[in-house]
Write a structure and sequence with these properties.
Blueprint (H helix, E strand, L loop, with lengths): L2 H13 L10 H6 L7 H10 L1 H7 L9 E10 L2 E12 L4 E10 L2 H5 L5 E9 L2 E10 L8 E6 L4 E4 L4 E3 L5 E2 L2 H8 L7 E7 L4 E16 L2 E12 L2 E11 L5 E8 L4 E10 L2
Length: about 270
């Protein structure tokens, strides 16, 4: 197969990162460097499956305009309710992500407040830029954590009078899992990421453990396991299993603590 054609096609796929596969026309391929007389080779590429592999690989997918996720939550093996997340596109590059835990059983009796999470953010290329973050009971502002991101002044200010310098790559607690959907750690084994949770900004070490096939409420899933932890607290870990065939969506989350582990497993998905 003509390797020059494959190279140009691969480059056009990379530049189409923000486009949906079905929106890439023959004119776009020509503009990206694929000559019209190369189109005879496209049938061979299509039949071989390479074209679809390049364009449907999750690295090119970006975020959907709308997505609803439901995770079942357990703590120490006991069901405590569900975590519902909703992603909505607001304008060309703007999104809002909301999350709410719905407690059930004994957890509903013990949980005094229902904490809601909301993040507004912008997407530019393969980076997410948080704009604002809120976590807390909607009717109790004194218990609410707030963060405002000013990328022009390169500072994030919290409502507890703390502020931190902003650099590209910093995420809030809600955008952190989404970050991997448009910037998956394909060639990285470890790295650093800073996360703002409304109370403080913390820098974590993350390690790409490797691929694993796991059972989920939605069936078997081929995943990439990523583990996050603080160097000062190695006994505390946060693990994410990213679905290789679902745009690196987190299908399982584990918040590991010395005495117990909270687990979130994706059981329903709409929009992806």
């Amino acid at each position: 197969m003509n390797t020059e054609i494959i190279s140009r096609l691969r480059n056009s796929a990379f530049t189409s990162f923000r486009r949906k596969p079905e929106s890439i026309s023959s004119h776009y391929l020509v503009d990206s460097g694929l000559r019209r007389n190369d189109t005879r080779m496209l049938s061979t590429i299509l039949l071989s499956g390479l074209f679809f592999f390049l364009l449907n690989n999750p690295i090119y997918a970006g975020l959907p305009d709308s997505m609803d996720l439901t995770y079942k939550a357990t703590w120490g093996g006991i069901s405590i309710g569900t975590l519902e997340k909703k992603l909505r596109k607001q304008d060309d590059n703007g999104y809002v992500m909301t999350a709410k835990i719905k407690a059930s059983g004994l957890a509903a009796l013990l949980l005094r407040d229902t904490y809601d999470e909301e993040s507004h953010f912008q997407v530019d290329g393969d980076f997410i830029y948080p704009q604002s973050y809120r976590l807390g009971p909607a009717d109790k502002p004194d218990k609410t954590r707030l963060a405002k991101f000013d990328w022009n002044k390169k500072v994030v200010k919290l409502n507890n009078d703390r502020s931190y310098k902003l650099v590209r790559g910093i995420q809030d607690a809600a955008t952190f899992p989404l970050f991997w959907m448009i910037n998956p750690p394909l060639d990285e084994k470890q790295g650093d990421i800073s996360i703002v949770d409304g109370k403080r900004m913390t820098t974590f070490k993350y390690t790409v453990i490797g691929e694993q096939e796991i059972e989920t409420p939605l069936g078997k899933a081929k995943t990439l396991l990523v583990e996050r932890q603080k160097e000062t607290e190695p006994e505390k870990k946060f693990r994410m299993w990213l679905h290789l065939n679902r745009s690196y969506l987190a299908v399982r989350l584990e918040n590991v603590r010395p005495n117990n582990t909270m687990v979130f497993e994706l059981e329903k998905i709409e929009g992806l």
